Amino acid sequence: MIQIEKARKRLVQPFLQNLGLTLGQGHARILNCLLEEDHLTQTELAGRCRMDTTTMSRSLDKLEKAGYLVRERDPDCRRSFLICLTDAGREEAVQVHQGFDRLNDVICEGMDPEEQELLKKNLERILKNLKECPGL
User: Cα–Cα distance between 73 and 54 in angstroms, integer?
Assistant: First the structure.
């Protein structure tokens, strides 16, 4: 698993750097999630991205400063903001999404659909086992 993660990072890091994004801060994941659906609250976005709210807040600040997103007042809740992609953010998010698709193609190269489904089920089982484990 460690070797797989290192190999994945070796491919992803230069790709993200070319886009001006930083690996490990969730920027690409945030943009990809917002491409699927924007106008989300920070809490909703953090849940979808599986990030804690502190990390999410710092990443949103950086992405907003870069001009990729804006925070708009939530008309349903005066204390809340909705996170929205800008036009530049949408362009960046499309590139991120295409890169993720290419990475998935590389990962699944040579696997037929049944093998891909089996891999997905096995990885879901591993994740479930790890989440349910009380400790070592």
Answer: 20
